[in-house]
Protein: Ferredoxin
Amino acid sequence: MAWKVKIDQDVCIGDAICASLCPDVFEMGDEGKAQPIVEVIEDEALYNCAVEAAEACPVSCITVEEA
Structure:
């Protein structure tokens, strides 16, 4: 199974919780907003990490859904 990671850049406030919780999937971009390092996840451990980061996001701008 594979999952797609998206971040709504218009909503992201750049608090970096996703990058700190799941650095293999998220990083902070040059504009101070989060961006995915990988857009499609095929590893279940990375999926779980990405979902945890999405749930921790204070503005709920991250989605992780089946690809």
